[in-house]
Design a protein that fits this description.
Elements (H helix, E strand, L loop, with lengths): L6 E6 L6 H11 L4 E7 L1 H8 L7 H9 L6 E5 L4 H8 L3 E5 L6 H11 L4 E5 L7 H15 L1
Parallel strand pairs: 1-2, 1-4, 2-3, 4-5
Length: 145
Amino acid sequence: MSQQRRVGYVPGVFDMFHVGHLNILRNARLACDHLIAGVVSDERATDVKGRLPIVPVAERLEIVRALRFVDEAVVEDVPEKLLMWERLHFDVIIKGDDWRGTPKGDKLERDFASVGVEVVYLPYTVHTSSTLLRQVLDTRFAISG
């Protein structure tokens, strides 16, 4: 009896790599047999977050690829997660639970239900985020500058 490999996809900007990124990638690996990390391109990140990531996409991709629980890392350069599914045909998409119950999360669930992909939410690391790190850096540079 052969078992099918369960492919997971976890998208993220992964800017200023920190323990929150490590947590979601490590835990995402537990939800699948083969984990693909989608590293959001500089352009897409700027469109979504309104500012360019501090670390360029090539470096973010290299960092994520180096993790033992990530089997593949690819650049996510499209506006819709479903377009990444058309490229990669994963079985499960993994997001932080800060998406659960939000308009973005509801859309994600609807989109992926239409192609039979499970949406798994993992705990979001509240005390550390790239946004918080950027705020601290902005504050420190404003004071010392």
